[in-house]
Amino acid sequence: MRVTAKTISKLLTFAAAAGMATAPIAVQAQSATDNTLDLPANFSMLGDTNPNIRKATAVVNGSVITGTDVDHRVALLVAANRTELPADELQRVRTQVLRNLIDETLQIQAATAQELAITSEEIDQTYARVAAQNFGQRADAMDEYLASIGSSPGSLKRQIAGELAWQRLMSRNVAPFVNVSAEEVNELITRLEASRGTDEYRIGEIFLSSTPESAATVQANAEKIVEQLRQGGSFVAYARQFSQASTAAVGGDLGWIQLGQLKNAQLEAVAREMQPGQLVGPVSIPGGVSILYLIDKRQILMADPRDALLSLKQIQITFEPGTTQEENRGKLDRFVAGVQAMRGCGDAETAAPALGATVVTNDQIRVRSLPEQLQDIVLNLQLGQTTPPFGSAEEGVRVLMLCGRDDPKLESGPDFDTLMGQLEDERINKRAQSYLRDLRNDAYIEYN
C-alpha cells in the first residue's frame, strides 16, 4: 500500500536562486509598459542561469535544511505520483520541495516563537493515524514502506509538525479575527435557491502565472505537467507542487462552483464541455495558463441520479486457456441467449449454473461508484433487465442485472452553519497566505 496524496505537504510557488559564474549572458528585458522595477532595456547576466546548479540546501533563520531532507520529501512525492519522473521534471520537483521545506520551517519557527510548539506526542499520534489509514494500525509497516521508497518516518513527522504548527498558529492569530455576518450567509442561501437546477462543477485547477516574456517557457512547463498527468501522475500532488493559485494547498480543488465564478470566459467555455474525469489544458488566460480537471458535476440543490443505491447481480462466465476462438464464441452466444431468457433476478441464481456462469450479488452499490461507461446504461435499466455483455476472453465476460434501486432524496441544500463555515474557511485561507508571505519577507535564508 502507499501513503495517500493527502499526506503530502503543501507545495507553493516557484523560487529562483542563481549561483554566480563568470561567463556573461546577454538577455532582453521586459517591455517598458511592464517594467515596474525600472529595469534596463538590455543587460548582461553575471550568473549562470542553469537551474541544475541551484543549491539544494538552505539555512532558514539558523535552521538547516539538508540535502537528505530534500531527498526524503521528493521520494514521498514521487511515490504519490506512481510514475517515474524524467530528469528535468525531477529537478523541478526538487526546487519545489526545497521551497516547501523553507515554508514549513518558517511555519514551525513562527509557532515556536509564540509558544505554540507541537509536542512529540502530538506528532506521534497523527503519525499513528496516518499509519492506521494506510496500513491497518501497523506503524512499523509504514516505517518500512517509507524506507523502501527512499524516504523516512522522520521526514513525514517533520511534515506533520509543520502542518499542526500552522493550524495552531492560524487558530489563534487568524481565525478569531475572521467574521462572517448572518446577512452574508442568508444572501448566499438566497442565491443558491435561485440557482436550483442549474449545473455546478467541482473543478481542480493548476495555475501557472506568466508575463509576455516568460509565456513560452511557462507554456512548455505546463505541457510537461499535462503529459505527466496523462501518464498517471497525481493531479493533487502536481497542484501542490506547481500551482500558483491559493488553492495549491488543497491540491487545486476549487470546490463546487458555478462557471461564472471562474471569472474568465475562456475557462467557462472549456469547463462547460468537460465530462467528469476529463483533463484539459494548458489553457492560455490573462496572466498565465490553467490546467483544468473536472472532478464531478451536478445540479444545484437537485437529487443526483448517480447517488441512487442499487442492488445488482453480476453474472459472469470465464474461458478456459487454450480453447479456440470458435469454442469461445459458442460459449458466449449460449451465455447471452441464456441471460436473455432469465425471468428476472429470482431466476438468475438457478439459471446461471446451466450456463457455466457464476453470480455475485451486491445490494449496496451507488451508481457513481460504477465505471463511467456503465453509469448511464444502468440508470436506464428496469428491474430484471441486464446491461450488454462486457469483458474479454482473458478476464471473462459478464453482465449486470438490476434487482433494486433506491433513488436519492431531493437535496435541501447546505444549512446555515455549513455555509458560514465555508465562508470563514475561505477568508482564513486568504489571510493565511498573506501571513506566510510576511514570514518569507522577514526571513534570513542562505543557500548552501
TrEMBL record:
It comes from the Bacteria. Residues 1-29 form the signal peptide. Residues 198-296 form the PpiC domain. The keyword Signal applies. InterPro entries: OMP_Chaperone_SurA, PPIase_dom_sf, PPIase_PpiC, SurA_N, Trigger_fact/SurA_dom_sf. Keywords: Chaperone, Isomerase, Periplasm, Rotamase, Signal. GO terms for molecular function: peptidyl-prolyl cis-trans isomerase activity. Transmembrane segments: none annotated. Pfam families: Rotamase (PF00639), SurA_N (PF09312). This is Parvulin-like PPIase.
